[in-house]
Inverse folding.
């Protein structure tokens, strides 16, 4: 989402600062309620669940950061607060398992649904990176074939100004798997190149 503000006054900056503080407070509350770094809630002492959670975080960071390294941009860091928001939003989609954009536009967002429940998070995120084969940096264009999703998920993965990532994976009521990844600061705004 693009926005520009020409001739910003201190009043506009104050409003922006208040909005960012409100967002941070809500993210902290979500993270506290959610539990683990990946937004999942595990009972105290459940070492197996915590280990799987840590492995999922490491896999997601690896998929994203490998793509970023390939184009020369800094790696992403995991954000428990952003993961908490992603988890809350993913849970709200449990009934329909629809990969629809969340209403909070402070983040960039990628979503995907895998058929069935046996999907690991990195396998779900890999097609986002694979979209890079259609992206031409020289012309800042996408040559995705008809019927393909385009390059926007890839360009969010590699967006140079994005520094934080938080994701959540759930099994929906249908038995399919939904992955939500949120990025801060968001990418894909204006006509700028991702890197």
């Amino acid at each position: 989402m693009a926005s520009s503000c020409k001739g910003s006054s201190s009043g506009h900056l104050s409003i922006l600062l208040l909005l960012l503080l409100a967002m941070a407070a809500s993210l902290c509350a979500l993270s506290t309620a959610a539990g683990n770094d990946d937004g999942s809630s595990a009972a105290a002492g459940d070492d197996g669940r915590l280990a799987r959670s840590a492995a999922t975080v490491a896999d997601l960071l690896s998929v994203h950061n490998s793509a970023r390294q390939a184009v020369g941009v800094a790696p992403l860091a995991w954000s428990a607060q952003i993961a908490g928001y992603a988890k809350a939003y993913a849970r709200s989609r449990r009934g329909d398992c629809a990969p629809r954009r969340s209403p909070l536009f402070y983040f960039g967002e990628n979503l995907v649904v895998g058929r069935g429940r046996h999907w690991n998070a990195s396998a779900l995120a890999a097609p986002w990176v694979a979209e890079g084969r259609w992206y031409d940096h020289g012309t800042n264009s996408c040559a995705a074939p008809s019927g393909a999703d385009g390059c926007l998920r890839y360009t969010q993965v590699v967006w140079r100004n994005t520094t934080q990532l938080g994701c959540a994976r759930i099994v929906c009521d249908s038995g399919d798997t939904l992955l939500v990844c949120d990025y801060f600061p968001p990418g894909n705004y204006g006509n700028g190149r991702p890197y």
User: Anything to note?
Assistant: The mean pLDDT is 82. Helices lie at 10-34, 47-70, 80-92, 121-130, 152-157. The beta strands are 77-78, 108-114, 135-136, 141-142, 164-171, 177-184.
